[in-house]
Design brief:
By secondary structure, this protein is of the alpha/beta class. It contains 15 helices and nine strands. The protein has three domains: 9-73 and 122-199, P-loop containing nucleotide triphosphate hydrolases (Rossmann fold, 3-Layer(aba) Sandwich); 82-119, no CATH class; 205-298. 51% of the residues lie in helices and 12% in strands. A five-stranded parallel beta sheet has the order 2-5-8-1-9. A hairpin with a 3-residue loop joins strand 6 and strand 7. Helix 1 crosses helix 2 (25-37) and helix 10 crosses helix 12. The longest helix has 17 residues, at 288-304.
């Protein structure tokens, strides 16, 4: 079932909250404006802070199809836009020849027919969809190279692509485009200017606690509070990869699977691989530093308890 676009920033916040995405007001504001003005939204930030989830939640909330293009180094038009189904074309040629067809021009015209076209994510997003224009997620654009980025700039400007054998294919209505980047390299200013921009940062303690409660209600209140307090302190360290919200959720769930109701030193040291993804970071935290952080957390929790 499809739904209308939100009519205000407050409606946008409500829409996201109903799908258990607890956005702050600046993100809801720029998302609302992008939806109302039909502009792509460029979300940049560290991995694991919820950029991709915005597109997933938006598609679910609006009842639209989600089309995802996962970017990677060497991504080309054949993988991102379209390619011809060569085996089926060859079969069509063999069948035509077997039937006695001799007009090569007619055969060539027949094999370059839309039924032989394999639509990849970007072309799918330009095609009519049941329920209205889809949500197009172009994920981790910073992993691609500059030529593809230049092509994408053109597509996001006119929402059309040219297929030499068929002509120009234009979207009847522009898709809702969400572009994400982990900032492993700088994306060209021209593409950013085409989009509305928002930096998605790490949440503060109160919002991260609310996210954990919404996404993992099975985690006990005491453990949830200590996990968030520990992660918040951990993000002040000079680590190669700071834990994102996704890692907080994974860690809380892992501790629950181990039947932990509060944090202790042994549990932290044995599960740091859930929270941190690089050995150098784990070595820097485990042992005495983890114990120190845990002590700070316990003192903070004790200070919150009523006398």
């Amino acid at each position: 079932m499809t739904h209308d676009l939100p009519a205000s920033v407050d409606d946008t916040l409500t829409l996201l909250n109903e799908e258990r995405y607890l956005a702050d007001r600046p993100l809801a504001t720029v998302l609302y404006l992008a939806l109302r003005q039909g502009r792509p939204l460029f979300l940049e930030g560290e991995a694991g802070v919820g950029k991709t989830e915005v597109a997933r939640v938006l598609a679910a909330a609006l009842g639209r199809r989600l089309i995802r293009l996962q970017c990677y180094e060497g991504l080309d038009l054949a993988s991102a836009v379209y390619e011809w189904n060569y085996p089926r074309q060859m079969l069509e040629i063999r069948l035509a020849e077997a039937a006695g067809a001799r007009d090569s021009g007619r055969i060539a015209q027949d094999i370059f027919d839309p039924r032989f076209l394999i639509e990849r994510p970007l072309l799918q997003a330009l095609s009519p969809q049941e329920g209205g224009p889809p949500v197009l997620l172009i994920d981790e654009l910073d992993r691609t190279d500059e030529p593809f980025e230049a092509f994408l700039l053109e597509l996001l400007s006119d929402y059309q692509v040219s297929v030499p054998e068929l002509g120009t294919i234009k979207a009847p209505a522009p898709p809702i485009a969400i572009v994400t980047s982990n900032r492993t390299r700088e994306v060209h200013d021209a593409l950013k200017r085409r989009c509305f921009y928002h930096w998605v940062g790490y949440p503060d303690g109160a919002r991260e606690r609310a996210i954990l409660t919404a996404k993992a209600p099975h985690v006990g209140a005491a453990l949830s509070a200590e996990v968030v307090a520990f992660v918040q302190r951990l993000r002040n360290h000079d680590l190669y990869k700071l834990p994102g919200i996704a890692e907080t959720l994974d860690w809380a769930d892992a501790l629950t699977q181990l039947d932990k109701v509060t944090l202790d030193g042994e549990a932290i040291d044995s599960t740091l691989g859930v929270l941190l993804k690089y050995q150098d970071d784990i070595a820097k935290i485990e042992g005495s530093e983890a114990a120190r952080l845990l002590g700070d957390v316990k003192r903070e929790m004790a200070g919150r308890r009523p006398l």
